[in-house]
Amino acid sequence: MKQRLTTSISNSADSFATLLKQWRNQRGFSQLDLALASEVSQRHISFLESGRAKPPREMVLQLATVLQVPLRQQNTILPCKNCGLNVCFQQPKPLSITGNS
Questions:
Q1: Angle (nearest 5°) at CA 61 between 34 and 53
Q2: Are 76 and 8 in contact (CB under 8 A)?
């Protein structure tokens, strides 16, 4: 059974690092694989996962794209206090269907 990924954001400073590592492991990427695919250094990926580096919004989105993180889960990564980012993808409002009687 696959491990379910954490989607809630804790107030801890390492929440982005934890989510990044979970998604990387879930997708079967090594740090080197992710670094090569996203065109950043392996050392930087290591720093991101350890919380030693804070990624800019563009890098978060680039890593999420490489890891094929669904948009709904990208919303859990973007507002992390560690990154200082706001939610990027808004959930669409449900359509209201009104009938004419």
A1: 65
A2: yes
φ, ψ of residue 36 to 5 degrees: the values are -65, -45
Which amino acid is present at 15?
Answer: S
Dihedral-angle region of residue 87 (phi above 0 means left; psi in -120 to 50 means alpha; beta otherwise): beta
d(CA 12, CA 8): 11
pLDDT in tens, 10-41: 333 358 899 999 999 999 999 999 999 999 99
Place of tokens 């390492």: 14
Q: How far apart (Å, rounded) are the C-alpha atoms in residues 50 and 95?
A: 42
Give the C-alpha distances (Å, rounded to integers) separating 12 from 16, 18, 26, 83. 9, 10, 21, 12
Q: What is the mean predicted confidence (pLDDT) over 41-59?
A: 92
CA distance 67 to 4: 16
- Give Cα 36 to chain centroid, integer Å: 18
